[in-house]
Specification:
This protein is α+β, with helices and mostly antiparallel strands. The protein folds into 2 domains: 9-88, Phosphorylase Kinase, domain 1 (2-Layer Sandwich), CATH 3.30.200.20; 92-263, Transferase(Phosphotransferase), domain 1. The chain is built from 8 helices and 11 strands. It has helices at residues 49-64, 94-97, 104-123, 172-175, 181-197, 212-218, 221-230, 242-269; strands at 7-8, 11-19, 23-30, 35-42, 75-79, 82-88, 92-93, 126-127, 136-139, 143-146, 153-154. The strands form 3 sheets. It has a 6-stranded antiparallel beta sheet, with helices on one face. A hairpin with a 3-residue loop joins strand 2 (11-19) and strand 3 (23-30). The longest helix is centred in the C-terminal third of the chain and has 28 residues, at 242-269. Residues 151-163 have low confidence and may be disordered.
């Protein structure tokens, strides 16, 4: 286990940020560039050829996906016998942000950014397979970046693997080992609903989900329709990919903001 002030090549460890199934993430200082970074390092007991291949895949995918809302890769190398992946350091995760109330505008801005990021990955035929608030990193100015393509799958006729992802954020078919682009759409829909309602939809994902009264009173029906289609348990009824979802979301977002502005004005007029 790395400790504070320990050196790892040019990096000086400052603190542990999080632990995952395969790796620990540390905050570190790049002593050459003079900036703080996030270092993702596989657990020593898990370093096998298969795990290293997973991380090599993450590196190769990250290099392909140059986009404003996808976290860029700074470095990937073996340092002192450890495989280290360095990323820019954000302020916190969307998961951290969800511990307090989010305004409608911020929620919809975050939603647009995350859907846009996944749409870009889908254009490259890449399925993320683990879209969750902890993999959405927030930067100054309410900028959001998607990270962790470590278990992403390149969309092919047959996708290998079974049940990869995080329980609670996965589409039903993904939990059964059959992820697709539509599975990422489902995860996006869950997060969008959580931001607007304060509650997570849960299996068996019956409609309406928990706290639906709050969403119905807060946003335009067109946006509700986008969410409903995104989190359909039957993948054939969902958007085929995040690109199609984004095309539906953008006009619905505009209507939702206009709807909220009208409600606010009418509220002032009746006082």
């Amino acid at each position: 286990m790395l400790k504070a002030r320990q050196r790892l090549g040019k990096y000086r460890i400052e603190k542990r940020i999080s632990d995952g199934g395969f790796a620990t993430v540390f905050r570190a200082m790049d002593t050459i560039e003079g900036i703080r970074v996030a270092l993702k390092i596989p657990h020593a007991e898990n370093i096998t050829p298969e795990v290293l291949n997973d991380f090599r895949q993450e590196v190769r995918l990250a290099v392909q996906l140059e986009h404003p809302h996808i976290l860029p890769l700074k470095n990937a190398s073996f340092i002192d016998g450890q495989f280290v992946i360095a990323f820019p350091l954000g302020e916190r995760t969307l998961g951290d942000r969800l511990t307090s109330r989010i305004s409608l505008k911020s929620a919809l801005d975050y939603a647009e950014q995350m859907i846009d990021a996944v749409a870009f990955a889908h254009r490259h035929r890449i399925i993320h397979c683990d879209i969750k608030p902890e993999n959405l990193i927030l930067f100054p100015g309410n900028r959001l970046k998607l990270t962790d393509f470590g278990i992403a799958k390149v969309a092919q006729k047959t996708v290998r693997g079974s049940g990869t992802g995080t329980v609670g954020y996965m589409a039903p078919e993904q939990a059964m080992g059959k992820p697709s682009l539509r599975s990422d759409v489902f995860s996006l829909g869950l997060i969008l609903y959580r931001m607007l309602s304060g509650k997570w939809p849960e299996w068996p994902f019956d409609w309406p989900p928990p706290n639906f009264f709050r969403v119905r009173g807060r946003v335009h029906p067109d946006l509700i329709a986008v969410i409903h289609r995104a989190i359909e348990p039957n993948p054939r009824k969902r958007y085929r990919d995040a690109e199609q979802m984004l095309k539906a979301f953008l006009p619905a977002k505009a209507k939702a903001l206009q709807h909220a502005a009208r409600k606010k004005r009418n509220g002032h007029l009746t006082r």
